[in-house]
Amino acid sequence: MKRQTKDKRFARAAYFYLKADLNIGVLKMKNITRKKVILRIYGCLMEAYGPQGWWPLTDLHASGGTNPTKTGSVQGYHPGNYSYPKTGNQQFEIICGALLTQNTSWPQVETALLNLKGLNALSPEGILTLDPETLKEAIKPAGYYNQKAGRLITLAGWFSDLVEKNPDKNPTREELLSLKGVGPETADSILLYAFKQPSFVVDAYTRRITVNLGLIDEKAKYDEIKALFEKNLPLEVPLYQEYHALLVEHAKRHYKKKGMYGGCPLLDLVRD
Questions:
Q1: pTM (2 d.p.)
Q2: Looking at residue 161, which CATH number applies to its domain?
Q3: Does a structural domain hold residue 249?
Q4: Which residues are CB-contacts of 109 (< 8 A; sequence separation ≥ 6)?
Q5: What residues form DSSP beta bridges with 75?
Q6: pLDDT by residue (tens digit) across 71-87?
Q7: What pLDDT digit, counting tens, does each position of 139-188 carry?
Q8: Do 183 and 157 share a structural domain?
């Protein structure tokens, strides 16, 4: 409870501090540090969209967890509550979601997760004992189901071993990256949302926004973009979670059509 209260206090304090520090339309890149730009972007996004409540969980569908901005999937979110995941099965659901969301959208992943839940298979034990063909059929909505089924089985075995042998240990990024099918974005999503470790997540939307704002070169590698945020933000899990989710929400509104990003309101923060 104390951790949840601290996390809420931090997120709201960051919001009000940054809101008070905004000066949209006047800010000049050459007159400020990159750190201030990164922080002010967060302030703008938080002011526009509010806390996002990521990662969504199927357990919260019945209890009224909703997406505050009503775009994409609309259930399972928990805005302002940073206490999730609370159970091992919720951790594992986030791990599954991080894998299944590769090359597809969240509503398709949500359908796959609900299919698994309907089979009482949304747990490491459930995945490992489920008939492989049944598993493939359940996750078919998320695409690449033959490939993803095998990788889910790998993750289920890995998570079971972790819980059995080192229940209080958080995995390292290198450990996650050694698992078949787990790339940088998936590893960082698992660390940040399932294990509450401050590892900033970079996705295609993050790349589009940072390149369009001139904060990073268009040929920058994943870890360069990751470092841009981690070097210029406080090492706080709620902040990392909100920032990533807010970038996604912003991109849904302003970065859907490839190359047509001139209307992004964040450009006022970096324009000469």
A1: 0.87
A2: 1.10.340.30
A3: yes
A4: 97, 100, 101, 141, 142
A5: 66
A6: 666 789 999 999 999 99
A7: 999 999 999 999 999 999 999 999 999 888 999 999 999 999 999 999 99
A8: yes
